[in-house]
Amino acid sequence: MPSHAAKKSAARSSSLALFARNFFKSPAMLGSLVPSSSFLVNDMMSQVDWERARVLVEYGPGVGTFTREILRRMRPDAVLVAIELNTDFVGYLRDHVRDPRFRVVYGSAARVRGILAERNLASADYIISGLPYRNMTDSLRREILDESRLALSAEGSMLLFQYTRTLLPYLESSFGSVKLNFQFFNILPALIFHCTP
């Protein structure tokens, strides 16, 4: 009978293999060959007020690198809606992330308000995004950011990371406040943006 550590290691290997396979199939959808580092995940998570966060949305959860950490920190009465366009990742998350607070949705982040409304959720306290905006068309990038701002509660925040500053002017035109931080210990050094309406 395999030990808990052996099972965990096998699950991690399987998620990395799935991530890499999807990167080579469609690199523009992922933006990086490997999932985010624990340094980047912790930096992003440290910017969330977990006591206040009742409705969280994650764009592009992939194999659940951020998802699992969000669920670990979330209140028992909070909900996490993960929006993913890759059917392999949707299937993987449905099979491997077992938490009654978690909803994985096949769809586009550009539909975030509709997705929340369909689940009787008025607005999001936090949107956490790892989408590769640099690889999107200009109109899709603007649509996702505008919809995200409208989907946030008045006190809400959007947290996202990127590998270039390409997105900064778009964020500044969509949000009232944009703060920028850096995480150098990721596989690719990452920029973290904290945006509020």
Structure write-up:
The chain has 197 residues and is an alpha/beta fold. 41% of the residues lie in helices and 24% in strands. It contains eight helices and seven strands. The protein has helices at 4-25, 27-30, 38-45, 65-73, 87-96, 112-118, 138-151, 168-174; strands at residues 55-59, 79-84, 102-106, 124-129, 152-162, 177-183, 190-196. Strands 3-2-1-4-5-7-6 form a seven-stranded mixed β-sheet, with helices on both faces. The radius of gyration is 16 Å and the shape is globular. The relative contact order is 0.15.
Shape type: globular
The arrangement of helices and strands along the chain is HHHEHEHEHEHEHEE
Instruction: State the distance separating the first and last CA atoms.
Output: 52 Å
Helical residues, percent: 40-55%
Task: Write down the Rg.
Answer: 16 Å
Strand % is 15-25%
Class derived from helix and strand content: alpha/beta
| Count of individual beta strands | 7
Which regions have little confidence, pLDDT < 50, spanning 5+ residues? Answer: 27-34
What is the overall pLDDT average? 86
How many DSSP H or I helices?
Answer: 8
What does the main sheet amount to? 7 strands, mixed
Q: What strand order characterises the main sheet?
A: 3-2-1-4-5-7-6
